[in-house]
Amino acid sequence: MTKTQTPTRVRRAAGLTLAAALLGLAGSSPSASAADTLTVMTFNTWHGGSQVSDGINKIAQQITAADADVVALQESEGDSTKQIAAKLGWHATDTGTDVDIISRLPFEGEDWTDGGAGTVAVKIKGVWIYSAHLDYTKYGPYNACFDNDSYETIYADEANRKKQAQEILDWSGTSPAIVAGDLNTPSHLDWTADTKAAHCNSVVEWPATKVFSDAGYNDSYRKAHPDEAGTPGNTWSPVVKENEGRPEPQDRIDFILYRGGAVDTTGSRTWGGGSGWPSDHLAVVSTFSL
Known about the structure:
- The two termini are 24 Å apart.
- The protein is α+β, with helices and mostly antiparallel strands.
- It has a six-stranded mixed sheet. A six-stranded mixed sheet has the order 5-6-7-8-12-9.
- The protein has helices at 18-23, 55-66, 80-88, 140-145, 151-157, 159-172, 207-214, 220-224, and strands at 37-44, 70-74, 91-92, 99-103, 109-113, 119-124, 127-133, 177-182, 218-219, 242-243, 246-247, 254-259, 264-271, 283-289.
- It is built from eight helices and 14 strands.
């Protein structure tokens, strides 16, 4: 199904009342769902909140604190999506995989594909929003920093993520879209000549993010923070700092990308960290004008 169609499959979180549906979210401020803006969050939930105590409640609390309208979830294992959505009184997809989307706003359409390692999409305010989670194996920064691999080897090992990115693009069509998720790769906008010292003396044009860029997608965080050296925006990892006695490469691998129509970012930031944070990634929160 292309994104120019309007799918009819719409799921809602268990226990969502008619009043909550009409309000979007009990207790939310009216300005949060203003017709001309949308705040999107991408959040790797670290195996559905199972790696920390009281993980579901902590994830729901962080989503509320970030004032997000829509959240692309990754590693949403088991029934964690349903639990998080129920805590918030939100709408939710139910893919049965590790990607889902929850929203305080109702879905105008919903779809899912096996492509791109499994990707879910919902339509909200006329814009298709995707939650993606690309292959985690053969992680590129390890090639560069631990194995001192050649650029040829690095690009060869990125081939599957590049393929998955292209599958998402092929599926998404040409409509305005927001792609949010853990891509398990840095950005070609970050490993530049200006940041070599922070990236194992390497300049890498990471292919998965380049595929999106070449197709007209903008990187909301990097558009809001164009100085990759001064504002790296690393999301991996607030928890993992060491790898078998070596410093773990710190990178920006969680993204909110957008393309098309009047959609443009008005701000973007990383979110989370510190005591009680329920993920091994930072989240990203971007606000869009529509």
